[in-house]
Amino acid sequence: MKIVDVKCAVIGKNPVVRIVTDEGISGYGEVEQYKPFLKPNILYFREALIGQDPTDVERVMLRIRPRGGFKPWGSAVSVIEMALWDIAGKAAGLPVYKLLGGKVRDQVRVYNGALRVPMQSFDPADYAEEAARMKALPEGFTIVKQGIAFHSPMKEAVPGFYYGDPPGQHKVFHGFADTGTLTERGLKHIVACVEAMKEVLGDDVGLALDCGPGFTARDALRFARAVEPLNLMWLEDMITGDYTQYVNADVYRDVTQATTTPIHTGEQIYLRQNFKGLIEGHAVNVIGPDPCDVGGIAELKWVAEYANLHGIMMAPHGTGDGLLGLAALVQVCATLPQNFIAFEYPAGNPTWWYDIVDGLPDPIVKNGMIDVWDRPGMGVELNPERTKPYLSEDDADFFD
Ligand SMILES: [Mg+2]
Predict the structure, then answer these.
(1) Average pLDDT over the chain, rounded to whole?
(2) Is residue 167 scored above 70 in pLDDT?
(3) How far apart are CA 213 and CA 387, in angstroms?
């Protein structure tokens, strides 16, 4: 089998790659909705892919992997990897999880980081209200994640929250660039909001917090210690994280080793090599690579296996990965070792995505879990007829 074409369409805001073969099989992969600008980056790899056998996934990846990078630049490489696995599975007549070593679970747990409504104000009562709404969702999530502190407008909305530069002054792109020492008022405010959420969620639903980046190491430790009695699932990305182009494992280690609250990072990191410091140094308790950023699903599995050898847990990121990304997460997470906690459930955005993707269960999530499906490849398909109305003029030949 040979690759004969590589196409990319921006559907909604998600760039979608289609790898076309000479045997009538196509493979698909989807970039997260925050990166509509990556279409040229995907097409940049066209020449390197044409003529290759897509079922030798690793051999093909060796040709393109050096041209990726930390978020957002690893996405093009990552979604091509997923499209290759989709083809390999379809060609073998097997679900992708079989090619990754087989499943170790029939259901995968998901946590809610995507089905949230934008908050208008950021006081404890607002957080309690949003926690109640998330707890009542029909998906029955057993873990929810909320953005606070530097990973939310709280830093701007709460007067005197921190001693940094004027809020938002560095922010040009999507991502989080504010940082600074918290005021005592700021620290107390965050803790009060977390207590309010826990009051609602009780011990029925686990609570994780997306926190930064932006905390200083000392504030990160103060906060982690202050919430120790609340038994949180994890504190995510306090020091580095979303779009940070480095890891700072040694700084994370100082925090992690001094608190019982689990510390989490990793969504922006590209390739297994860049997890070495975090994993070997026991610098965090949980890591959250995103298959659409880390280099693909096999890359994520490598990281998970290595983390498991070191007693580090896995909670993969995925909020913007869309419905094809959801399928990829289900396939790989079915195969992860027992350090798997849950992955972040991606939503279809806009909601017409649910009309153009065939093969997903209905409902998708029951009691916070997704049943692993058995169709070949990723097991989901873009329906060409129903997708075409959403293609731009530039992408009109995507299915040709
Ligand atoms: Mg995050």
Answers:
(1) 96
(2) no
(3) 37
| CA of 230 relative to ligand 1 center, distance in Å | 20
CATH class of 99-382: alpha beta
Query: Average pLDDT in the 133-151 region?
Result: 97
Measure 172 CA to ligand 1 centroid, in angstroms.
Answer: 18
Question: Residue 10 Cα, ligand 1 centroid: separation in angstroms?
Answer: 24
Domain segments of the chain: what residues? 3-93, 99-382
pLDDT digits (tens, 9 = 90+) for 294-305: 999 999 999 999
Residues bordering ligand 1, an ion, CB closer than 5 Å: 210
CATH number of the structural domain 3-93? 3.30.390.10
Distance 245 CA to ligand 1 centre (A): 14
Please name which of 316, 303, 218 lies closest in space to residue 264, comparing C-alpha atoms. Answer: 316
> In the predicted model, what is the mean pLDDT of residues 9-35?
97
Report which of 122, 135, 265, 140 is spatially closest to residue 207, judged by C-alpha positions: 135
Report how far ligand 1's centroid is from the alpha carbon of 392 (Å): 31
Output DSSP code: residue 94.
S
N- to C-terminal Cα distance for the chain?
Answer: 19
Distance 355 CA to ligand 1 centre (A): 28
pLDDT of residue 73: 97
